[in-house]
Design goal:
globular; Glutaredoxin; 8% strand; alpha+beta; binds glutathione; 12 helices
């Protein structure tokens, strides 16, 4: 039996759930405590990582622990023939799928996470308390009132961890848009992300697009619709999960308030992450650093710069 350690709302974890379900392997999940990660402490961190992250799996049959989503998939593919169907073709095709997975982990996964959390902070910050603190202190932080306060404190800590406040000044929305446009053009004429066969790359793309479904700039982008159509097709066929907690919370918030959009700009922008290697890049920073005292300012001003509440997209606001 395989145990998947996860934070259920993480798109990196959804990627592994999709693969395990596709392969039909026996597996169970264990939701970790987001702050202490105590469920993972008994296991060593892999040599290429300096912190513990989820997804991580423990395979009781082969007594093996693996952390980091693409290495998890490599491990499953090596040891379980059912997973090999997600890496079809000859060796060079399998390598192309693996390289695409690392690229998506780094280029799409990291920014989709930043923009998804930013949207939650701007539209329904209380959800953060439910996600992170519902099992802490008997659920005290999810009580009305407390939920709102704790949500904003968590929002500030996440802002420090992932530098949400730099997204506008570093032109990251445009950088991700520029990365996604060629992929969207490909999916207008090809059915699959790599080659002419369904593969793990299609499942990964579907999982990683989920946070962007709550970000109007991407989800309503006329030239990116083939990506979301591909995602709907893949999830309809290979997922039984339905909407995630943040999609539900955002939809509810938008019943009473317009969505938060952004002022668009014409800028040349490229993704800031290093070229992919055998392992994905990660962008987590220590929460407690000398700049932590700047957090309230960053949270209240740069994070919100260029953001506008508006029901429909219009000239210059998307
Ligand atoms: N490249 C990693 C990314 C995993 C990752 O960053 N996971 C996040 C959840 S989305 C995590 O464990 N965060 C814990 C933390 O920030 O301390 C993968 O593909 O698995």
């Amino acid at each position: 039996m395989i145990t998947l350690y996860e934070l259920h709302w993480s798109h990196y974890c959804e990627k592994i759930r999709l693969a395990l379900s596709y392969a039909g392997l026996p597996w169970q999940t264990c939701d970790i405590q987001a702050f202490s990660k105590k469920e993972l402490l008994a296991y060593p961190s892999p040599s290429h990582m300096n912190r513990r992250t989820v997804p991580a799996i423990f395979d009781a049959t082969l007594h093996t622990f693996v952390m980091d989503s693409t290495p998890i998939l490599r491990y499953l593919c090596k040891n379980y023939p059912q997973v090999q169907a997600l890496y079809p073709g000859d060796l060079s095709h399998q390598r192309a799928i693996d390289a695409m997975l690392i690229e998506l982990d780094t280029k799409l996964g990291l920014l989709a996470r930043r923009f998804g959390y930013t949207q939650v902070i701007l539209e329904c910050p209380s959800l953060l308390s439910t996600l992170f603190l519902s099992r802490v202190a008997g659920g005290f932080f999810t009580w009305p009132g407390m939920r709102w306060i704790a949500g904003h404190i968590l929002g500030m800590l996440l802002c420090q961890r992932f530098a949400f406040h730099q997204s506008e000044s570093s032109h990251l929305y445009e950088a991700l848009e520029n990365y996604l446009l060629p992929l969207a053009r490909r999916l207008e004429v090809h059915a699959f992300v790599v080659g002419d066969t369904f593969s793990m790359a299609d499942l990964a793309l579907a999982a990683y697009l989920r946070p962007l479904t709550i970000v109007p700039f991407f989800f309503e982008h006329p030239q990116l619709q083939s990506l979301f159509a591909h995602q709907r097709t893949v999830l309809a066929e290979h997922s039984t999960e339905g909407s995630s907690a943040y999609q539900v919370a955002i939809a509810k918030a938008r019943q009473s308030q317009p969505p938060v959009r952004r002022r668009t700009r014409q800028v040349a922008a490229v993704l800031p992450f290093a070229e992919a290697s055998a392992y994905a890049h990660n962008d987590q920073r220590p929460v407690w650093a000398w700049q932590t005292w700047l957090l309230p300012y960053r949270y209240l001003f740069p994070l919100r710069s260029g953001k506008v509440r508006q029901m429909l997209a219009s000239q210059g606001i998307q």
